[in-house]
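Subject: sequence -> structure tokens, single chain

Hey, anyone have a minute? Need the predicted structure for the following. Not urgent.
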Amino acid sequence: MKMVNAKNDELRPEYDESELKGGVRGKYADRYAAGTNIIRIAPDVAKKFPDEESVNEALRWVIRLAEDAGRFTNL
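Reply:
Had a minute. Here:
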């Protein structure tokens, strides 16, 4: 990665550089990682669902069916 020379800084004039100092890289990384649960759905499956809520609704339905059949005992 190429480092930007301070003399060739391309920071936009509307940004107040004094407010950008003192940041901590990765300050919230652990908190973010702990609360994030991203699951990738295959493209052919994703085409069948218009949004996130419809996926969740379908999965809840599958969970109820599995619970009724005695397949899930830890939920």
